Structure formats: C-alpha cells, structure tokens
Amino acid sequence: MNSLPAITGWHWLKQGAGLFRKQPAALATLLFANILISLGVSALPFVGPLVVSLLIPSFSLAFMQACLMIENGQRVTPAVLLTGFRKPIFPTLCKIGLVYLGISLVQLVLVYLLIDQEAMQEMARQSRAGEQPQVSGAFMLTVILIALLNLVGVITMCFAGPLTYWQKMPPGKATFYSFFAVLRSARVFLVMLLAWFAMFVAITMVLAMLLGGSSFTRVLIMWLIFLFVLLLQCALYAGYRQIFGKPVDGAQTGPVNLSK
C-alpha cells in the first residue's frame, strides 16, 4: 500500500469522534454490555479469563459493525452485540481469539519473569495497610514496557476480526493482512495513539486541577476512560475503512489490496 502520511492518524481520531457524536448512548450501551459479559465470563473458575481472551474478536466486531451502521445512518440496537456470536462466523473468530490468548499468556510470562514478585507483594501489603505504596522507577518502567508490548500486539490484530466477517477470510489470512496493514502504517497508528493518549492525559489533568482528588473526580475520570475506549474503537473503524474500503452489505467496495 502507498505510504499514508502520519497525520492520517489524527484524521482517524477526528472521524472516530464524529461517529461517536452521532449515537453516543448506543455505543456506550454496547461498551457496558461488553464489560458486563466479560466480567461474568471472567468469574468462571480457572477458564474464565481464558474464555474472555477468545471472545475479544467477537466483542470488537460488534463495535466495527456499529460504526458501519452509524455511518450508513442506521440506528444501533443492542442486537448488534450478537454480530460476532452467530454462526458461521463465531468459530472463525474464536480461532483468531487464540492469538489474543497467546498475547495474554506472553504478557503473563513477562510479568512473572521481569517484575519483582516480592516488590508486588510488598506494594499489596502497603495498600491493605492503608499506606502509600512505594513504587520504584525501574518497576514502573518495566510495567509500562510490558503494557506497551501488549498494546502493540492487540493493535496489530485489530483488523483480523472484521476481515473474516466482511471479507470472508480464513483466520490465518486475516491475521496476516491485519498485522502487515498495521505494520506498514505504523507511523499513522503511532500518531493516532499518541494523540489519543495526550488528549486523555490533558483532560484528566484539567479535571484534577479544577476538582481536586475527590470521589466525584475519580468517577468522572472513570467515565472518561470509557469514552476514550469508545473513541479508539471508532478511530480503528475509520482506519479499516481507509485501508480496506467501506464494507457494503457484508462485502467490500473493492478487493483487499495492501499495495493500493
């Protein structure tokens, strides 16, 4: 594909914000439904968190389909949540979910190998005792690096689910196209994520300065996190649309072509 200018990432964010503004309540309802289902599944003994990882592509596809419906002027209903859970697409999405599961397992291994377990236990003890946890700079840097690696892994998979649904690709091919589409547009995604994060931090700092550290401020920040998760989902749809074309009635306006 031709190199997209880095500023395209900012345009994706603006387009995502435009989609969100059209039906914010519907998208928020979709997000909370996803969260509730994920929490319910996670409560299952032993296998709960593993199953949630397998279902990530199905959950993500619901947001992509909702964004398409909003763009087409259709009303988004809670039924869109079932988009990725119907046959025959559900088993295929679960196969892609195995990749997400692998990413989660790698993250757990890195946490175990790179983070001082005694330091984590001491921080937990301090929190239970009502003390301010003492966090070293090296500890925070390690946590941030692991989180960034996990984010990179998840972002490179963001188009795999939609490609299986709209392009009827097998899981391996969809994963391949998603990975290299993101890789070849890496600077665009970097700008999008940096702008997204900078906006979140700026708004959070303003709220903290104006309202202090009250419980009300913490509630507002929690709502802000939800809003920014939705904004990122909508921006990813804008990215998919530009790279692969707009889906029309379950198909694409043109063939997938990474050289375009």
Automatic annotation (TrEMBL):
Residue spans crossing the bilayer: 24-44, 92-115, 135-165, 186-208, 220-240
Keyword Membrane in record: yes
InterPro entries registered for this protein in UniProt: BPSS1780-like
Protein keywords: Membrane, Transmembrane, Transmembrane helix
Transmembrane in keyword set: yes
Protein name (database record): Uncharacterized protein
Natural source organism: Massilia phyllostachyos
